[in-house]
Amino acid sequence: MDPFLRTSAVVGKTAKPATGKGAGDSEKAEGGKTQRGIQSVEVSGRVLLALAQARTPLALSDLANAAQIAPGQAHAYLVSLSRLGLIKRDELSGRYEPGPLSLRLGLLHLENQPAFRAAVPRVAALAEAIGFSVAICIAGPQGPTIVRYEHAGFPLHVNLHVGTVMSLPATSTGRVFCAFLPPEAVAGMWANQADAANRAMTPPNELTAFDATLNAIRARGLECSVDTPSPGISSLSAPVLDAHGRLSLALTVIGSTGAIDVSADGPIARTLLAAARDIGIELAAATSLSASSAP
Q1: Omega before 17 cis (within 30°)?
Q2: Of 2, 118, 233, 235, which has the highest C-beta tally within 10 A?
Q3: Ordered mean pLDDT values, 10 residues apiece, the chain (295 residues)
């Protein structure tokens, strides 16, 4: 039996129906019949929500405070959530962060998104065709985040994997997101990255030179980085836009400097743009079909 399921069965035996008001309040079903929930499960949800909203690992006391429960009570919930794999504790810092089951659930949700489903097979084909690794990145709270990484060619001396967050100003991927996301979405990511770096970062709309860079990216439809942010590593990134011209995700080709051609009119750039365009076309067709079949 899956260890997650085995632990879930054990935890489930100790759960009690909710009574009174609060986290275990009853709700009405569509037919008007009152439903009863499990209060302990809903308190666990508050703990998970507090961690998700913090967007950073938390100490027990901070997590308890955010979830509005006593530290002793929080510890008991964290033990069970850790057994389930929904939360894990970093042995060095003692802080709590999302666990492997949370990641699996997040990826399951992602796999049901039309843009991601359309991108996965094309990204695999793209990596094989050009011989360089390709990442699929989506907008996360802290910035562009890798959600799929197709390896190709020789191993790169850079730590890129699913969950890696790309710097907004320092990477081709980050600048693509800055160019094609609404300003308010970029501002939130920018603030989170500034907090994570523990240093001041001037918002992009206050940098005239950066605005000019973003306009150039929009004009050519992609961006490149050479030896940044990692020496010896270069990349090309292109947006995938939906039927309304909104950014759904970005494709980023990564390779060793000197081995990868990152010119905007080179063969890799043309192949990358074609893949991004094909994904956008499939996404638009899926959106149109869904709209036409709606009652």
Answers
A1: no
A2: 235
A3: 35 38 48 75 89 82 91 91 90 87 78 88 96 94 90 85 90 97 90 64 63 94 95 96 93 96 96 96 77 55
